[in-house]
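Hi R.,

As promised, here are both runs. First protein below:
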Amino acid sequence: MPEHRIGSREEWQAAREELARLEAEQARRDEEIKTKRLDLPWVPVDTEYQFGTAEGTKTLAELFDGRSQLLAYNIMFGPDYTLGACPGCTGLADALDGTLVHLNHRDVTLICLSRAPIERLTAYKQRMGWQFPYVSTYGTDFAFDFGLAMTEQQAQQIPEVKEMTDNPPGWLQEWSHQIGAGLKDGLRENPSWIAFALQDRTVYHTYTVSAPDPFVAPYFSSLLDRTPKAQPAEPRSWRKDEYPD
């Protein structure tokens, strides 16, 4: 017999209707949050950042590639990572290529960012089979200015980060081995989405969201949320070419 609660079709229908009411409430709340998000003030970006790309150095405005909106996912792949990007971030990035054509036709350019040098990002992109632009912020203050990474001093001032560094659980020790970097350096990267607008040749910062917000989780997580069995509480991840089976 299954370990889960067993019921009749009538009991299932009643429970499902109650859940539907909660889901409808959540949907209404999500619309309110969406409105608030769109209403955030735009902040001009005054610094002339230079980014490493496969085509050479580009400015932030040039990353828009002729469109007026730029959406970027910051993958945890710091300069000290010797074995590749964060497996969880990699899992999210695996699902991005299919969105490119749809976003591009809606005036949005989608890219990914990391602090590792462009040569290492390009090699990792090739390994993963990605097509989206992968841009390096190496050697710039961009990631620090926009909260996408922390200095060593900043990281040590955050109690949660310091605790995870000093007393890491087993899954986090495993993650450290996967990226090939110590936690003191590995946890300084901040997986995030960041958005910009380009208007009258001025770039504006419009939005940022970081983990543990569900929007920063791999897309397959939302599918797993609809399956019958709960997933393990510990956030273990593997790259698609490294699953233990």
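And here is the second one, sequence first, then its structure tokens:
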Amino acid sequence: MKSETDISPVAISGRALLTDLYQLTMAYGYWKSGRAEREAVFHLFFRHSPFQCGFTLTAGLAPTIEFLQAFQFTENDLAFLDTLRGNDDQPLFDRGFLDYLETLRFSCDVDAIPEGTTVFPQEPLLRIQGPILQCQLLETALLNLINFFHLDDENLDPKTWCRWPILSGGFEVELEELRRAVQAESG
């Protein structure tokens, strides 16, 4: 049986490219307009409970925090970004922006609901506050990491239905784990 440590942050640490081109071009726009350090706040939440359940338990906080602490662009990341071209066949990103990314280190504040806490739709799981450029770059990776752990809860047996008694309401909720969940690298 797999545990959270099998999705090791070591395997994804420094993986600043766990994002999409939209986030990178938005970050570039903030940098180019001199707004990269402007304060921003974003909340990570879910709209609907997985498995039609009405609630979920928070999961994946420790690996997410470790990912954030190790967040940085590697030499290979920057070399790849340097190869990207726009429609005009010019480099997509200025050298100055790539130099900025090379020295970028995570400096945001994170507030999170403790691991294993019952949460409901529209309730923030994470609150990230810091430079808007960093918040923008982190959004896709954080969504992917947190979603993975909520959809790959190892406490559920993937081959059978699992019944969890809900003491407060006196009823049972049936949950079935996904047989295949996406990994962080699939974002």
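A quick note on the second one: The first strand starts at residue 39 and ends at 44. Let me know what you think.

Best,
J.
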